[in-house]
Amino acid sequence: MTLQDRERDVLTTIIEVYIATASPVGSRAVSKISTLGLSPASIRNIMADLTEAGYLDQPHTSAGRVPTPKAFRFYLDTVMRPSPLAARQRRRIAGDLATAGLEVGDLLRRASRVLAGLSLQVAMVIAPKQADARFKRIDFSLLNPGLIMVLLVLQGGLVRTRVIETAPEVTADNLVSYANYLNDLFGDMTVSEVRARLVRELEEAKRTVNALCRQALTLASSALDGEREAASEVIVDGTSNILGQPGFTDAEHLRELMRVLEERTILLELLDKTANELKTVITIGGELDRAALADVGVITAPYGAGSHPLGAIGLIGPLRMDYAKLVPVVNFTADTLSRLLDRRF
Asked: Which one is the CATH code of 87-128+232-344: 3.40.1190.20, 1.10.260.40, 3.30.450.40, 3.40.50.1820?
């Protein structure tokens, strides 16, 4: 069904009233708000057509209608325009994130907490994967003869330290030379690319007489050896925000939704997808392929350092979330997070 102007306007009015009230919307309410000048009887006929076409549903206990996921998808794709973000919200997001700890985990947890507090929904953020993070630098510090500390810094604030053994004759000056060589060799590669390059360079080093190259590569290999690529961490905040919200009052439905939030698997899939697509994504209802999420909407946006994607941040809330107001909150939080990661690390 291709919606005509009258049908489009009536449907938009119903959706916006439903977002504001969380209650079924009747023809009389639409008649009072709509600028079409239609009578309640005419609006009832249009609502009947929209119901037949799958855009509206009628709860058994009400004469009004509620928008279906199909209606929200139409609204999001063709009608909804994000509202400007208020200056006070910008200041709160920027100020709260700027005072987070230096560790990237502290910054991500703060971002999730701020987003949950401003939106009154469930906030989530996926931490960067080590394999996808860009190499920034490696440093060596001599602790004792034959014992050194390795500091591996990745773009996005991931830091790894290890203590490894080396030849007792290696000096602090040697370590500076090794670090300079490796930093030039691996600049702007991902950790996965560094690992692959190391394999090739170590093979080549067997045929060279350059001791510096061999020793530097051996140290780099030892520094990365044993680092296991763990599954990305999903940080969730504000789960209590869904308690008591209209649409989440059924006890069994709420328990299933809480299980999904605790399980994290589908959250990881949604955030991973957004990080790879490099754009804000809104996913709703049946698109989530889980019965517990049929009445849920998800807004996700990517973050990164420079031009390199690192992860994604987002919100989970009822299908009737005020997307026009919440999309800018998610986007500004993601942009602020990206700027801080780029500046700090």
From this structure: 3.30.450.40
Determine the number of helices (DSSP H) and then strands (DSSP E) in the chain: 12, 10
Strands of 211-342 (E only): list them: 234-237, 281-284, 296-305, 308-318
* Sole residue written with tokens 């069994």: 252
302, amino acid identity: P
CA distance 47 to 26: 9
131 with 192: CB under 8 angstroms? yes
User: How much is the pTM?
Assistant: 0.76
Q: Using CA atoms, how far apart are residues 113 and 313, in angstroms rounded to an integer? A: 11
- Using DSSP bridges, classify how beta strands 234-237 and 296-305 pair: parallel, antiparallel or unpaired: unpaired
Instruction: Quick: pLDDT tens for 158-215.
Output: 677 788 888 888 889 989 998 898 888 888 787 778 878 888 888 777 776 567 777 8
C-beta of residue 155 within 8 angstroms of C-beta of residue 305: yes
Contact 259, 292 (CB under 8 A): yes
Find the angle CA(165)-CA(167)-CA(173) to the nearest 5 degrees: 100
Flag whether pLDDT at 227 surpasses 60.
no
Identify whether the C-beta of residue 93 lies closer than 8 Å to the C-beta of residue 328: no
